[in-house]
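Data deposition worksheet. Section B asks for the primary sequence of the deposited chain exactly as it was used as input, without tags or linkers unless they were present during the calculation. Section C holds the resulting structure in token form. Section D is free text for depositor observations; keep each observation to a single sentence. Incomplete worksheets are returned to the depositor.
Section A, Depositor: J.P.
Section B:
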Amino acid sequence: MNLSEINWDIHAAGYWPAPIKNLIITMVYLIVLTIGVYFDTLNQLNVLNSAKNKEPTLKSEFQKKQKKASNLQDYQNQLSQIEISLDELMRQMPTEEELASLLVDISQTGLASGLQFKLFKPEKRILKDFYSELPINIQVIGKYEELGLFVSGLALLPRIVTLHNISINPDGSSGNLIMNAIIKTYNEGDTATPTITVNKKRVIKK
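Section C:
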């Protein structure tokens, strides 16, 4: 085949020899394929590699979520138990109408134990997330067993009462003990601190 005898005019391409036409078609195919790979396939390969790199992280997250899902019933049971416990604690908080009566019960518990009150001072209410805390500064004088009866009596009250910052020192003048402490009781809401007058006389047990 003499290439000089071929009419290379593009309009006469139909008359070119078959090997020439096959060669040109192959070149055009390779050019189109290269352009397609460059503009499309390479981008898809980058996306695929990125997805492969994320696979370990996604697999780890899936395993964690699967573990949580398998323990969902246990979590729900624990939540139900917590809600029941919280509800019971909330019911043990005195209402505003019961608060003044509770303060009287606290003072009467001390007096009935044989203690003498030197100080019974409700402080300003402290607001928490969903309840308020009422601290009461107390100072009582009595014997060791009387202090024990007082603490036991507080634990038996129908409402939540806790003792904090307890310090016990001897009273040199009488041979008794002086206990300083903060009693805390709790209430829903943010109502004002109730006022109460405490009988500080000691009850002599027979």
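Section D:
The chain has two domains: 16-66, 94-188.
The mean pLDDT is 78.
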